[in-house]
Write a structure and sequence with these properties.
The complex is a heterodimer. By secondary structure, chain A is α+β, with helices and mostly antiparallel strands. Chain A is built from 28 helices and 26 strands. The chains are: A alpha+beta, B alpha/beta.
Chain lengths: 798, 119
């Protein structure tokens, strides 16, 4: 006896709930009763039984008096482990935590960006009279070309609108700007400096370092110009300040960061919507009553009732009723799938107009949805090999940029000084700051991961689960696609295609079919099954064979309704000296079109031919045409004989066929293609073809719908439609293109932007980049990378 | 060329030399971990170099003390581990270095670096 039951507590009024909690660590009957007692002593527990063998506790309780969490605590207090079987909490909870962090980040950045943006505009306006007054004192160059342009174009207007601004004492103006700028730096820009300092202490440097050094240097320079302008004037330099530039840079970078935060949030929309598909409660039939129960309390084997339009709460098998269920969120298949008794339903899918009852089978973290969410999360977090270069560059980027900024400063200083130009420090300083500000390592870091996230999400929407960045990258490089025949190109389920009866036969087609099917009902051969199914679908009522004999390699013989029926191949007919010459040409034609003809003799007289074939899927031809349009070599592998294989291949539009291969031969064939230098994708079912899928560069499993995560494949197709394989390849190619665009843009941006900021174009074209413009470019370079990745969501793949 | 120019050139070279020394060459203090070590994540990893025993699992508890999105993930490329670190929370990563050697870890964008030295 491994189960002890108690009914220590009187039944309380109101609804009761039942829960099964897995308990770990119990080794003996004493442990069992220990846990049992602890549970029974909990108020609100009506019945508790602990099963040592099953390692669980089944508890009936009053939900108004005790919660499942309390029950878990009670078990834990005895020293044994317990936890609620719930949907993969880590995946869902992690997603939630990320979302919350992202929303908070976005809101915080948005507020800071708006406030500092307004201040930046004001600072710029009040810098104009200040610069004008400096210009009166000195005839030095205005170092910031953007400010120079703003001044020349806006000064007349400002003088007209606010002439009073020009009457303010320049000292008052500059000290006010100093205080305001310090305020913006200390509030809106605080995190840049805090993080930069924290990184610096760890001998590392990131984007914050660049911003902090750039704006910090500009701010220090301005303080000196404000405090001791005489020092600058005595050296022939206008005591220009950069307060407005500092505030502008902070405002623009914050704006860029806010956009980036929002765009990054969008890259995980697909995962979030999958996680949200899990319904919160289920209607469970218990003791003849239908009660709404939170899904985590649904126990294995319980009966669940689903009404029209509702979401199916957990995975299970239908026991009564029928309906059509919309599984598009999981499979990408837009047409609702008909479901009847015995069919599997998946938690999270939406019921159509019918209603049904079903038995809960897989729950919690084993459920299909939890598996998909987990798989997606792992995929989205994975890294594509193409990222390695970006990683290497990011690792050394910031110190290199700081070095370049110093080189810029020195070069400008020396060049201006030697050419006898004015104010070498000012020019050198502006260029160096521009170099620090324009450099953007973030775009490189975001280029690949954002594309992987969006692409895996897009794949899931299409019913194509791609297991990570590496799979995505390899799938983008595929040159040859190898298809398993049975179940991949074909339905994998033989069906009767033709029924031909001899001229002048005494029996009708239906009669022949009925007799044959009645005989074959006793057989276990897959072809026999096809005939029986066909007869039943035609609406025939089968008789019971009074005798049945299976002749291996030949067919079957028996007696049905007092007639002796023989069904089998030509050899069987020859054995029984049945003359089949009247339909010989028909048999020939059927065989060469990939069908298997079976001869029927009734009472020793040839009656006709029943042909059985594994028909190709309706979508296979189209899918194969698309594969070829993508430039892929399509190869079909099959264990069938050459003739049948050729016929199927011809119908499906495949040129290369390798027939007569055993399962081990599939691996060898994939290897052979790989040694020819091809990148091979193998499409097959995840169980039988597992070795070949593993050997191929990209294993694409046609999901059997059971265990998506366990299959030895890089890509799992959620529906049996071969076009999904095309989607997988198309999506991967598109994604690779996006990644390359992103990386190119991120590198090119820095490679072009940094020299321009340093002023390499100045000698030839007179082009100099203002630090403010540099900050605008920097802020939006990462936004543009994320936006480019988001374009994948809209990619037309169908 | 007068003295100021020379001063700027020499000063510039000195700054570059120092920056590269500081960020690339300067030794970071290593900490020896037996079974568990807490790594503070705030603009970097502290400690950033951790000595571990090869073949023995070690629990690395990442205590992320900031909201900066730069450090929100930690990646161990050699072990295929990528973990989201919620802000102001401790997240544990268990790693077993199979054989002696240096195994790097970094943030999701490869800006912050640390390493495990297995002996």
């Amino acid at each position: 006896m491994t189960t002890i039951g108690t009914t220590d507590h009187p039944k309380t009024s109101g609804a009761t709930e039942r829960i099964r909690i897995p308990v770990s660590g119990m080794t003996c009957a004493a442990c069992q009763s220990h846990v049992q007692k602890a549970l029974a002593n909990q108020p609100g527990v009506i019945d508790a039984s602990v099963n040592l063998m099953m390692q669980n506790a089944s508890i009936t309780f009053d939900p108004s008096a005790v919660t499942p969490g309390k029950l878990v605590d009670a078990i834990r207090s005895t020293g044994y482990g317990a936890k609620l079987a719930s949907p993969d909490q880590t995946a869902f909870a992690e997603q939630e935590a990320r979302d919350r962090a992202q929303t908070e980040e976005f809101e915080d950045l948005r507020l800071k960006a708006i406030v500092s943006g307004v201040i930046a505009v004001l600072a710029m306006v009040f810098s104009m009279p200040l610069m004008a007054s400096n210009a009166r004192q000195m005839t030095g160059p205005v170092s910031d070309p953007f400010m120079l342009w703003v001044m020349t174009s806006l000064t007349p207007a400002l003088q007209k609108l606010a002439p009073w601004a020009y009457k303010i004492d320049p000292h008052v103006l500059s000290y006010t700007l100093l205080v305001v700028t310090a305020g913006v730096m200390g509030w809106a820009g605080r995190h840049f400096y805090v993080r930069a300092w924290a990184s610096f202490r760890h001998h590392s440097a990131d984007m914050n370092t660049l911003i902090a050094v750039g704006t910090g240097a500009a701010f220090l320079y301005s303080i000196i110009a404000t405090a001791v302008p005489g020092f600058f004037i005595s050296h022939g330099v206008a005591p220009d300040v950069y307060y407005e530039a500092v505030v502008f840079i902070i405002a623009l970078i914050l704006t860029g960061n806010a956009f980036e935060a929002r765009a990054k949030g969008r890259t995980s929309i697909a995962l979030r919507s999958l996680a949200n598909m899990q319904p919160k409660s289920a209607r469970v039939a218990r003791d003849g009553l239908e009660t709404d129960v939170p899904v985590e309390l649904v126990a294995h084997g319980e009966t669940i009732v689903v009404r029209p339009g509702e979401r199916v709460p957990v995975d299970g098998e239908i026991i009564s009723g029928n309906s059509a269920v919309d599984e598009s969120m999981l499979t990408g298949e837009s047409i609702p799938v008909k479901k009847a008794t015995g069919d599997r339903v998946i938690g999270g899918t939406i019921n159509g107009t019918g209603s049904f009852r079903y038995t809960a089978t897989t729950l919690g973290s084993d459920s299909m949805l939890a598996q998909i969410v987990r798989l997606m999360r792992d995929a989205q977090g994975s890294r594509a090999p193409i990222q390695r270069l970006a990683d290497q560059v990011s690792g050394i980027f910031v110190p290199v940029v700081i070095s370049l900024a110093v080189v810029t400063f020195v070069a400008w200083f020396v060049a201006v000084d030697l050419s006898g130009g004015d104010a070498p420090v000012v020019r050198a300083f502006a260029a160096a700051v521009a170099v620090l500000i324009i450099a953007c390592p973030c775009a490189m870091g975001l280029a690949v991961p954002t594309a992987v996230m969006v692409a895996t999400g897009k794949g899931a929407e299409l019913g194509v689960l791609i297991k990570g960045g590496e799979a995505l990258q390899r799938a983008g490089d595929v040159t040859t696609i190898v298809l398993d025949k049975t179940g991949t190109v074909t339905e994998g389920k033989p069906a009767v295609t033709d029924l031909v009866i001899t001229d002048g036969a005494s029996r009708s087609k239906e009669d022949v079919l009925r007799l044959v099917a009645s005989l074959e009902a006793s057989s276990e051969h897959p072809l026999a099954d096809a005939i029986v199914r066909h007869a039943k679908e035609t609406g025939l009522t089968l008789s019971t064979a009074t005798s049945f004999e299976s002749i291996t390699g030949r067919g079957a013989v028996g007696v049905v309704d007092a007639a002796t029926v023989a069904v089998g191949n030509l050899a069987l007919m020859n054995d029984r000296t049945v003359n089949v010459s009247s339909l010989e040409s028909n048999a020939e034609a059927l065989a060469s079109s990939g069908r298997t003809p079976m001869y029927v003799a009734i009472d020793g007289v040839f009656a006709g031919i029943i042909a059985v074939a594994d028909p190709i899927k309706g979508t296979s031809r189209d899918a194969i045409a698309r594969m070829r349009a993508l430039g892929l070599d399509v190869v079909m592998l099959t264990g069938d004989n050459e003739r049948t294989a050729r016929a199927i291949a011809k119908e499906a539009g495949i040129d290369h066929v390798v027939a007569g291969v055993l399962p081990a031969g599939k691996v060898a064939e994939v290897t052979r293609l790989q040694t020819e230098g091809r990148v091979v994708a193998m499409v097959g079912d995840g169980v039988n073809d597992a070795p070949a899928l593993a050997q191929s560069d990209v294993g694409i499993a046609i999901g059997t719908g059971a265990d998506v995560a366990a299959e030895a494949a890089d890509v799992v197709l959620m529906r049996g439609d071969l076009r999904s394989a095309v989607h997988a390849i198309e999506l991967s190619r598109r994604t690779m293109r996006t990644m390359k665009q992103n990386l190119f843009w991120a590198f090119a941006y820095n490679v072009v932007g940094i020299p321009i900021a340093a002023g390499v174009l100045y000698p030839a074209l007179g082009i100099l980049l203002s630090p403010i413009l540099a900050s605008a470019a920097m802020a939006f370079s990462s936004v543009s990378v994320v936006s480019n990745s988001l374009r994948l969501r809209k990619a037309r793949i169908a | 060329m007068h003295a100021t120019v020379w001063f700027v050139i020499i000063g510039g070279l000195a700054v570059i030399a120092w920056v590269n020394w500081y960020f690339f060459l300067a030794q970071r203090a290593a900490v020896t971990a037996s079974t568990e070590v807490t790594i503070t994540v705030k603009g970097g990893y502290d400690p950033a170099v951790i000595r571990v025993k090869a073949g023995q699992p070690v629990r690395l508890v990442f205590d992320r003390q900031e909201t900066s999105s730069c450090s929100e993930e930690v990646v161990f490329p050699d072990f295929g581990v990528k973990k989201f670190l919620p802000a102001f929370q401790k997240t544990t990563v268990e790693i077993t270095a199979p054989k002696p050697g240096k195994y790097g870890f970094m943030c999701g964008m490869s800006m912050l670096h640390g390493s495990l030295i297995a002996e």
